[in-house]
Amino acid sequence: MRIGSSIALIVIGAIIAFAVDYQVAGIDLRLIGYILMAAGVVLLIISLAVGFGGRRTTTTTRSGIDPASGEQITRQDRRDGTY
Predict the structure, then answer these.
(1) Is 67 within the bounds of a domain?
(2) Is there a domain that residue 60 lies in?
(3) DSSP letter, residue 80
(4) Residue 79 within any structural domain of the chain
(5) Domain count, the chain
(6) pTM for the complete prediction?
(7) What is the residue-level pLDDT of the chain in tens, covering all 83 positions?
(8) What distances in angstroms separate CA 3 from CA 41, 42, 49, 55, 75, one per listed residue?
(9) Which domain holds residue 30?
């Protein structure tokens, strides 16, 4: 889940907890709203932690021999970014 889904859970939970005035036998809608809000907050924290901690550097090394000169050539490609 990403940040948008987490915020959606928080909003849906808040609506159920604070705005719904409907009684269901055996089900506490206010508690379900609080649980959804707590799950949304936890997932938001996880999404932010993974998003900021996901920076990686990839280095690719290729070696070969130049056919014209016969010298060994090594090429390195380095890519920085988030995945």
Answers:
(1) no
(2) no
(3) E
(4) no
(5) 1
(6) 0.62
(7) 588 999 999 999 999 999 998 888 999 999 999 999 999 999 999 988 887 765 667 788 888 888 888 888 888 888 776 54
(8) 10, 11, 11, 17, 39
(9) 3-53
